[in-house]
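Data availability (excerpt). The following record was deposited with the supplementary files.
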Amino acid sequence: MKKFFFLIIISFLFTACSIETIDTEEYPLYFSIMIHMEEDFKDDKDVAVFEKHVQQLNMAMDLADDYDAKITIETEIPFASAVKNSGSDILTNALERGNGVGTHCGSAMDTSSIAALTESYLKRKELVDSLVGKENNRGCSGGWGESDSVLAAQEAGFSYLDGIVYLAYLAQDQSIRPNQVTDEEIREIYYHDPVIPEFSDHIYPRFVKNAEDFIEDEEGTFVLLNGALGEIGSLAEDRKTCGTKCKLTKEDLEFIYDKITDANKIRDKERVAHLFIHLPLKYYSEENEEILRSFFAHMQELQKRGEIQWGTQGEVYDTKVSERK
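Predicted structure:
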């Protein structure tokens, strides 16, 4: 009889441990690509420009399909207007192929009121909503400046912001900024650098209530998708060195692979971690096809080895929300 009860106790303890193990979820390192349809594009004024951009987006999606990857197209007013006016299915087709769509909201560093910034966000959101539905357009990249971007974006109906750069620090007190960087330094030097500079903290998306700081807030309902590495062609050289004329090189790709390795070494696997890059349209060309294929092929291998998991920005947002449940 004693042996019988002993076996029951052992069985109970084993079951309890098994349940505890199951309840502890481990997350992969998510990786995403943003493609920004910029504010200064002329798609709504020049059909040839629009057609070229559609061709480049199709190349991006074809590459993603070939290597089990995903992209997220984040569009400003000019391209979205051209899509609407032409009746193009490029954005809905992107969704059907498993990619993501969102909004790009430009720079708002001199927008001094939350009301004005909200109006700017809303104008863009309503246009993109009309093309893909609000359920598919939940996030925005950009809109950083003096006003509180989180409050404005949330009021406009967005659920998350990504592509967070130093311009966002303009809305914060200088005393809590990294190295107490000044407004002038942000505007002239660091404006497009990703936040948060400390990589061990940078890789984690977070809930916030406002843009007054970037510390995770238990009461926050809005998500900042952290983890941006920057524009792909500037990663090895630094954007401040080459601006918009950076060439895509193998060194840029090595930078990405190294950051993935670093993130996997330090991350807490029970938290959602995320890295992403901006891979602009200009790089989707015959000239760059070989290096792009080498990048996507390597990333495909990393996914097979469990070192990354491709996801759209919206999918990473959903995962962050589920982490809380």
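Summary of structural features: The radius of gyration is 21 Å.
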